[in-house]
Amino acid sequence: MPIMVTDLDGGATRVILSDRIDAAGSVEISMPMYYVGESSNSVIIDLARVSFLASLGMRNIVALAKAVYRRKGKVVLLSPQPFVEEVLTTSGITDLIPVYRTQASAEAAVKLD
Fold first, then answer.
1. Residue 79 is part of which domain span?
2. If you compute the radius of gyration of the chain from its CA atoms, what whole number of angstroms results?
């Protein structure tokens, strides 16, 4: 499965995506991403292991972020591969969700005051 969800110390949730998030991958991550979006206020979406990200996968990321932002929560993207980051930047998603390079900086960014 191209998704793993873990709870971090401090209350943040880490969503680790992997492999190709194409049409089939998007179907697999849809429900877990929805659940995280509805239940967590601090989310790190780790994209380090994603080799391809289709528009349906981007839709899942944006839907999660919108759900968290409605509750005044925080969402960040962690370590996307260059091609994936280019797609996210071109689509404007990085204007909505900031990108961080290290786990420590991502955790500091989603820390709720």
1. 3-110
2. 12
